[in-house]
Amino acid sequence: MYFHWIVLTFLVISAGILSHVQYQDVVTSEQASIDALSRSLLVYRSAAAEYARLNPAFTGTPNDAALSFPAWYHKPAGLHASILGGATYTYYSTPTPGLAAALLERTESVSIGVSKAGVLVSLKAGTTNISLPAVVPEGAIVVVN
To answer: What is the domain-level CATH number for residue 50?
Structure first.
């Protein structure tokens, strides 16, 4: 009879450990995805900002083929840039929890935030007076350069 209790206790403990390990795997996977996406957004921002610097009269959405990306770069779906008046607005149109915080952690910039009613709301400074182009959707994660 005691043997059954020992086996049952062992199974309960094993199930708890397995559940915890699976949860940690999911969390690690989500963090890795956010990390990769934030780095991709910053690479895209740099390419778009360089394009804006080299083409000061350009206004609109630059063609990806015109941007200079590293050979290893693969652009995630939903990542866009708009250039208006020499300023570059790089944005990720799909709201992704944790992305803005990861970008802020990497750059410590006030010009990173979320689009709310056509204005940049910075995680660091709150509502800014930075107006965003009309093509930037509501709730998008935005990096202004």
So the answer is: 3.30.450.360
Is the CB of residue 128 less than 8 Å from the CB of residue 120?
yes
pLDDT tens, residue by residue, 99-123: 888 888 888 888 899 999 999 998 8
Predicted TM-score (pTM) of the model is: 0.77
CA dihedral for 44, 48, 49, 51, sign (positive or negative): positive
Q: Is the dihedral of CA 129, 132, 89, 105 positive or negative?
A: positive
Domain count, the chain: 1
Which residue range forms the structural domain that includes residue 96?
2-144
DSSP structure string for 28-66 = HHHHHHHHHHHHHHHHHHHHHHHHHHH-TT--BPPPGGG
